[in-house]
Every structure is written in structure tokens, then in C-alpha cells.
Amino acid sequence: MDNKAFFDLVYGVCMLSTKYEDKINGCIINTCVQVANEPARLAISCINGNLTPELIKKSGIFTLSVLDSTVTFDVFKRFGLQSGRDVDKFEGIDHLLDEQGLPYLAEHADAMFSCKVVSSQDLGSHTLFIGEVLDAKVLSPEPPVTYGEYHSRIKPKPQTVEQKKIKGWKCSICGYEYEGETLPEDFMCPWCSHPASDFEPIYE
Amino acid sequence: MDNKAFFDLVYGVCMLSTKYEDKINGCIINTCVQVANEPARLAISCINGNLTPELIKKSGIFTLSVLDSTVTFDVFKRFGLQSGRDVDKFEGIDHLLDEQGLPYLAEHADAMFSCKVVSSQDLGSHTLFIGEVLDAKVLSPEPPVTYGEYHSRIKPKPQTVEQKKIKGWKCSICGYEYEGETLPEDFMCPWCSHPASDFEPIYE
After folding, report:
1. Which of A160, B75, B108, B187 has CB atoms 3.0–4.6 Å from B196's, for a disulfide?
2. B66 and chain A: CB distance < 8 Å anywhere?
3. Where in B68-184 does DSSP place strands (E)?
4. What is d(CA B66, CA B29) in angstroms, rounded to the nearest whole number?
5. Touching check for A4 and chain B: CB below 8 Å?
6. Cα angle vertex A26, ends A23, A29, to 5°?
7. What's the ipTM?
8. How far does Cα B21 stand from its chain's mean position?
9. pLDDT of B6-22, one tens digit each?
10. What are residue B152's phi and psi, to 5 degrees?
11. In A, which residues are within 8 Å of B148 by CB distance?
């Protein structure tokens, strides 16, 4: 099996939110498709262990903000790269409340769907929820963002950090060489008496 | 509820195929997402009543050809706009067989997945199948096509058909006018005796 084939599937990206008792939370998912009509139902799949699906199992309701092409990495960092167990993910970000009292994004979303869970299926690594759509709104004229665009355009590229290791320091005045990674702050050149600030690193 | 919101969901497009006894068939679907890992499982949703899901319910196996950006409208016409009850959809199109003996596309697909059904759920209008992935291959370096691109770029634009209604026929030889939508094939001009083939339509 060639696992690279899975990268050829197309996904959109949503911020999935819910509320149980006083706790509101949201996360990023890339699996939201309409699976049936009359009534319209959406399927979403969420990683087990994450807080949002745990809360959805108790609340039985969820809301989706479909991310549009204006979305920035900050939204992914906020909802996707930290846990609602540690922080309030909605603090300091513009959001609205739907009729269920669930938050959805006021910016960077082109549509929202308010849903109630009609079935769920534990698939081991994930839980698949099917939600009946109770309300739907168009929020912006921007096109939706794809998961491919997130990877190619939005997610920061890993930077090539030059891993230079310092093996010594050289006096830029007289050329004296000090052996060792760390030059003491109060070091003075034994040849020309210039201070540590006149030394430059020698790399391996 | 604003139904236009549903157009803001992102989908890829696949040709879904199966085989039961001697009948192979395939159709176009826009709902295929990976919903779980270890083992990898895909969810697909199919319209009830169509032949392909009916065959999948009996065979318990299916294969997906993920359509890539080179796909033409012919593929959609072949697999999406006719029924396998009337035609053999695979006749005259290049295809390969996977280890289950199911056909997948030799062109216009960037990946394929061979799956066995591990669960199905009747949702009224559609059936949701979850398939465990038994094999996966990358087939082309082209990017996958999105359902949005199908609508914006691949599907022919509706043409303005002039709905002209014929109210009569005029003899092009002598100008005699016949009243009525249909000119009998054996009609002869009462003025000049020329045949029906010399008459031209008069539009409303």
C-alpha cells in the first residue's frame, strides 16, 4: 500500500465547536461532507481523546465554521495546535453564537452549520458523528480553503536553521585564538589585551 | 436555513466501482474522506436506488479512482449521467483491475483505493459505507480535481437554446404557406406542385 495516495484526497477545513455545561471549545477538522438530504446531514470525523469530540459526546450538538481562503495560520494555531484543556480557545477572537449558543467564527469563515448529533460511531482512532443540520448561513463571498492550500500556502515552511557549532573564538584585532565554545565575558586577549567583545566565533 | 451554505463545503470527486457476480459498474461520487487510521478507513456516501451502491451492498467491496485535474466531461457523462442498468459503463474506456478484480481508471485518476465494506448505514436518501483500505496506489502526479472545479471549468455551460416554435411551412419555390406545425412527408404544393422537401419552417 502506498500511503502517499491518501494525500490525493481532497478536503476542506472547518473549525468545529461545541459547548457542554459552561465549557466551550473548538478544534480544526478536515473531514466534513454532506452525506444525506431531507433532512440534510453532515458527517464529521474527530480524533478520539481530543476535548471537542469528548464534549460533543456529552452535548449532542456541534457547529461548523467552514474556513475560507482569507484564513491565516493564527486560526490554525489557536484551534488546532493547543488543547482546550489548557486554554480558552475563544478568548480574544471575534465570534458569534448560533441559536444553540455555540460559537462560530465572525471572520475567515464562508459558511456555518448548526447541527445536532443523530448518530456516532467509534472507529478506534476517530469517532464519526452524523449531524442533522438545524441551521446554515453563508458568511462571506470568499471561496473555501482546501486542506491542500493549508499545507502549500498557509502553514509556515520549515526554516533551514544553520546548526553551526562554535569550537572557539578569534581575536579580530590580533588573531589570537581561544579554544572552547564559551568565551568568558571578562576575557581579555593575552596578546593584545582587547576585551571579549572583539572576539568572533570560530565554527566547526 | 440558507441552502447556498452547502455549496461552501469542499469535495473531491471519485469514480466508485464495484463488481457483483458478472456485473461491473461505476458511478461518480463527491463524498470520500478518510475517517480513521490503523487500519485506514474511508467513508463514502451514495444515493440510494443507484446501481453501484446496490451492487456494493451485495459484494461488500469497492474501489475508488480519485479523479485528477486532467479529467474531461466525457468521464462524468459516462459514469455519472447514465445508468449501468442500461449500458456497460466500462466498455471502450481504458481501465485496470485491482486485486479484488474491480476496475479503476487508467487515465484521469491520481490515486486508487481498494476497499472492503466494514459497515454501512442507511440514511434514507443515501447509504454511508465505511470501507477498510486494502490497497492504495498513486497513479499520476496531477493534482486532484475538486467538485467546485467540475462545476466551474469542466461541466459545459448551459447554452441559450432558441426555443423556436414552428407555426407553418412556406414553399421556397412559389411562396405558398401551409398552416400547422407538421408538414406531411408526402405533401405537394397546391400552387407549384413541389414536394415537402422544398418547404421551410415559419416560426412563431
Report:
1. B187
2. yes
3. 95-97, 103-105, 109-122, 126-138, 166-171, 177-179
4. 10
5. yes
6. 150
7. 0.76
8. 23
9. 999 999 999 999 999 99
10. -85, -30
11. 143
The DSSP H or E segment spanning B45 is: strand B41-47
Place of cell 463488481: B19
A149 lies within 8 A of chain B by CB: no
Q: What is the pTM (predicted TM-score) of this model?
A: 0.77
Residues near B96 by beta carbon (within 8 Å), at least 6 away in sequence:
B103, B104, B105, B106
Q: Output the nine-digit C-alpha cell for A112.
A: 456555518
- A residues 158-177 closer than 8 Å to B (CB): none
Instruction: Report chain B's terminal Cα–Cα distance, integer Å.
Output: 43
CA–CA separation, B204 vs B191, rounded Å? 24
Is the pLDDT at B202 greater than 70? The verdict is: yes
**Domains with residue ranges and CATH for chain A:** 3-154 (2.30.110.10), 166-203 (2.20.28.10)
State which amino acid sits at residue B193: S
Task: For residue B162, name the pLDDT band (cuts at 50, 70, 90).
Answer: low
